[in-house]
Amino acid sequence: MASPPEKPISSIARAAEIGQILMRHGAKNLAGALGFIPSSSNVIDPREFHPAAVVAFLRDIGPVGIKLGQLLATRSDLFTEHWITAFSTLHDQVSSVPFADIEPVLASSWGEDWRSDFAQFDEKPLASASIAQTYSARLRDGSEVIVKVRRPGTAARMEADVRLLIRLAGIVEARSPDIARYRPVEFLRTFGRNLAWEMDLAAESRACERIGAYLDTIGVRSPAIHWELTGLRVNVQERLYGRPASSLGSPSGDPRVAAFAKSYANAVLRMIILNGEFHGDPHPGNVFMIGEQDVGFIDFGSVGTLTKARRDEIVRLVLAIAGEETSDVTNVLLAWAGEPKVDRDALAVDLDQLIGEFRGTVLSGIEFSQIFSRAFDLLRDYRLVLPPDLAILLRTLLTAEGFVRSLAPDYNIAEETRPIITELLAERFSLGSARSGLKRLRGQLLGLSASLPDILATANSIAKSGYVPVQLDPLSIEQLAGLRNERQSLKGPLAAALIIASALLVDQSWLLAGGALVIAGVVLIRKS
């Protein structure tokens, strides 16, 4: 189902339009610094930016500006509350495109006789957003489906706007050190990649199937995809029937609603922590209560992905907070921020104070939103910027917590996370995981085979002479002077030998390999 590419939009023409938008909203100094109008100053002062004007500017840019503003509304680590409130007014609700403009997209995807695939097709859209519109239909076999169609011209305009915004961000980075620390170019590149992915309706369908396969294992529904009718600009999926979660309203005391809310939150947490790929926008409009209390997710246009390494970091952070290990919390946050130059001691003191605020508090009395709010205050104070992949995670968690609490006020997302993290830890330290890790270690050790002759020659010399040849840099002698009376120890070499033996034995005997590791641990722990 190949579709003709959309005609690209001239960057020069679009730049002129954006320059006019800046002028219209009183950003004359910024327009001058960016080169839209003649100016004697290239200095960009962030204090000139005001929430209302920035929001109006983003709204006038169009779909890219609106989606960018929605993303910024989730970045409490970057913006204060009055900025977040302003960004939150940007809604992805747009006037629908007439079906006469949509039909050519269907014809180019399915052929001129596309109607022959349907027993019924309602030309009135169910919903209209900046990227696509959705329609209800029924296939010839009686299947009720949802047809999602990308709005014509959307891809070309969005791609042009993202390219232009990245170039402008580069200029801003060069001319404003205060803004450069937020890495706007990196942020916008990530935003652009995610937006391009969202415009690919086939990619959305693949994500729906992948995540849906996991959700199915925990009893949560997602739409089946009709691949014979799905492509880049159109997808067709099963229509799920049930009560939209947005219609459930405030707490009603109905135990089925409370059970539904907890099942929904459990699904979100398990997608994030155990699956690593998750629905990135699980707001009530994208969730259904099916039957008595079953959960169903739709619209996988926004998806978050966490690598195994990132999930391990998150678990490490949670465990460090729970164990009041301030130094570990500091290390994780600074690693996420790209190891910037900050006063680590002062940050550690502030983090210890933050942890202390929740010390001794009953777990059910803690809200993630409280923790995030306080943590984000610290991040802003120290000018620490979280990596872009965590932004969608935080949005998802806060969306889930807010929605669940609206239906089940006694629900505590932190408490419910504990058994899931325990499950993750069990997975990480399972027999199979340990065996896999040892195999990787063995592979790395075998990779040193090129140096083996030299190593063996050195070992033979040591064995014969009883001496270890050592070279010291003159500057190191002073540092070693205080250690001259300490007794040499063979613990390190012996433990290393045992670990190597364990790696080599792992395929022949798991018991022997494990025994070697245990002895290595005893050697390292034993005092001299």
How does this structure look, described?
The protein has 528 residues and is an alpha+beta fold. It has three domains: 11-91 and 156-187, no CATH class; 94-152 and 200-239, Phosphorylase Kinase, domain 1 (2-Layer Sandwich); 242-448, no CATH class. It contains 22 helices and ten strands. The strands form three sheets. Strands 1, 2, 3, 4 and 5 form a five-stranded antiparallel β-sheet that branches. Helix 3 runs antiparallel to helix 4 (63-72) and helix 21 packs antiparallel against helix 22. The protein is globular.
Secondary structure blueprint with pairings:
Elements: H1 11-24, H2 28-33, H3 51-61, H4 63-72, H5 81-87, H6 99-110, E1 118-121, E2 127-128, E3 132-139, E4 144-150, H7 154-175, H8 177-180, H9 184-199, H10 201-217, E5 234-238, E6 243-244, H11 255-275, E7 277-279, E8 287-290, E9 294-297, E10 303-305, H12 308-322, H13 326-336, H14 344-358, H15 368-381, H16 388-407, H17 413-428, H18 431-446, H19 452-465, H20 474-480, H21 491-505, H22 510-525
Antiparallel strand pairs: 1-3, 2-3, 3-4, 4-5, 6-8, 7-10, 8-9
Pfam family, one: ABC1
Protein name: Ubiquinone biosynthesis protein
Domain ABC1 atypical kinase-like: 90-331
